[in-house]
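Appendix C reproduces, verbatim, an entry submitted by the partner laboratory led by Prof. M.T., so that reviewers can inspect both the input and the predicted structure.
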Amino acid sequence: MCPFLRDETLAAPLYEALLPHADKNVLSHPEASLGSASRYLAFLASAMSLRDEAARHFERALEMNARMRARLWVAHTQSDYARMLLAGDEPNDWERGLELGREALATYRELGLDYWADAHQSGGEPTTIV
């Protein structure tokens, strides 16, 4: 929860603990995959205002989730990454953020996930808050 609360104090030790697992996938035994650990590292890096590191982690998560053919996790990563980029003030970030957002929305719609599509379009909370 600390990445969404922007709590840098809590994010830093979690980031350090998760960093060695950046190239792994997160599983909730026995039934669920939660996608690339790099996505969660991106949240933590963003909470610590490490924007470049967050972008690298998001890019890695996109690669890993695509390689697994985990379309839902690709879309979640695209949506979260777009949100970070659109909150910034770099012109290239804005263009990339819009592109990622469109791709996420298209995937949510293709998968019949109207709830996620609506949350994405409204700029709601990140998709993994439980």
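Strands lie at 25-28, 32-36. Additional entries are available on request from the coordinating office.
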